[in-house]
Amino acid sequence: MNSLWTITKWMMREKKDIVLSIFFGYVAGIAAVALFAASGYLVSRAGLVPPLYALMVPVVLIKLFGVIRASARYQERLASHRATFTILSELRVRFYRQLEPLVPSIFAKYRSGDLLARVVGDVESLQNYFLRVFYPPIILVLVFLSTIFFVTYFSVWVSIWILFGVFVTGFLIPAFFARVRAKHDRELRTLRGDLSSGMTEMMYGYRDLLLHHRLGQTRNELLEQSDRYAAAQKRDVTNQFFNSSLVVAASLLVSWGVLAIGAYLVVDGELNGLFLAMLIMMSLTAFENATPMAVFPGHFADSKQAADRLLEVVEPSEAIVAAESSRTDMVLESAPDVSFERVSYRYPDTFRDVLSDVDVTLRSGSKTVIVGPSGSGKSTLLQLLLAFVRPDSGEIRLNGQRLDDVSQASVWREASVVLQENHFFFGTVRENLALAGDFEDAEMEAALASVRLGFALDEPVLEKGANLSGGERQRLAIARAMLKNGVLWILDEATSALDARTEADVFAEISRLAESSTLVMVSHRLTGLERFDHIIVMEGGRVVETGSYDELMRSQGVFYGLKQIEQDIFA
């Protein structure tokens, strides 16, 4: 219930429309009961053939209650749906704002398809929370309390019977089906998440599936998942239909009970027979408000699961935002000193440390390259330096200031970054370069020339740079970093897709621009490392060697062995 309570607190920002919905819903419900009560009384009274003037008051009341019911129902629908759409909009915005601080680390925990299912499907599920979960029980209780209070004036036994009927139709039956629904709901949402993830992965991996002749098999597996999801939905709809039928049947039995009790009281002389039809009509109408409770269990379970899944994703967000807001804004006016002091890190829900007790110091303006086997923690070290993630233990310092005390934005503001995978937006070359800042066309063209790209600024770039080769994407990302030209350069396999000649030319331009900056680069290639001031060798998440190129070659340690292997392969 904690998740729904959180959603309710968010929802209560629309207090005006919520109060109006409840007020007009209550008025419409009471007006309907009064309308049919007056109709029942009019039928009984007319049966006695009274003078015409004796029927005028019931007739007028029927017309009045009819107008009130219609007007109140319209206002209730207007206010409740306006509240629902506003609440849904607020939920989307709030969820996105809480999701944003979790990027990019969130993708280490959730598959993109499952995340999409939560962002779209679960948020949509909550549109029924106000109309089908929060609102109906309030109207039910208010209308029935008023009805029972009125009926008590004529017969306590009829009131007790109606109260029992309310308990059965409004609470007992929905509670039973809520338990039944809970057993199937988790399966339904798991199937939907798996289906969404499978579809996303098939779309992203379509080409690889074709190349490996697995497209047909994957399609069949998705069709099987789709069939299981459809079957689960069918069972769910069947349960809801049976629940609705049972509530309606119980409501009619309650009305038959009112007839039986009322007839007995009339025969016994305890009730004026003139009011029997009125009580029956009142019970029939009042139990219309119990009908929405038939679908209450399904929508309650949907809302509960949706709220749980959404808050599970964004739960760390408030702590992250609070921690980030408490951090100071650091201004890097010159190349910073960088130090890692016994830094360790483990990705969420994994069983081994990616980094363990890393101790490294980089001088201001130095040029450092990090090498080592794949999976040794090189890229993770750069992510920690960029404050994408925070270390589990140890400290990272920039100019002696703890990185954990510094806001992410202040680090990113002064950093020129090229990662292994760089995103390119659908648009033009100019628009993608403009991410680095507000630059003139001449400056952008100079940056493209520096990385040996002959692109026109208005040349189109497809989504994720699909129309660019791997080398072109890397060089466009480097051009973007060159335009920014921060005091801290972070390069993660930035030239891995380039040929040797182009790589040498591009890196010469980077070295020229970053001459007075602190540069940290990850590389798998061991050629050309003589130009670096410092080489860090990593293995198994630990730093195993540090030093200059000449120092490491003389010591004939791990780096020397890697160099010999490279020479043997490319000899």
UniProtKB/TrEMBL annotation:
Membrane topology term: Multi-pass membrane protein
Cited InterPro entries: AAA+_ATPase, ABC1_TM_dom, ABC1_TM_sf, ABC_CydC/D, ABC_transporter-like_ATP-bd, ABC_transporter-like_CS, P-loop_NTPase, Type_1_exporter
Keyword Transmembrane: yes
Major site of localization recorded for this protein: membrane
Keyword annotations from UniProtKB, A to Z: ATP-binding, Membrane, Nucleotide-binding, Transmembrane, Transmembrane helix
Pfam families, alphabetized: ABC_membrane, ABC_tran
Domain ABC transporter: 338-565
Gene3D superfamilies: ABC transporter type 1, transmembrane domain, P-loop containing nucleotide triphosphate hydrolases
Name of the molecule in the record: Thiol reductant ABC exporter subunit CydC
Species in which this protein is naturally found: Exiguobacterium aurantiacum
Lineage: Bacteria, Bacillati, Bacillota, Bacilli, Bacillales
Name of the gene: cydC
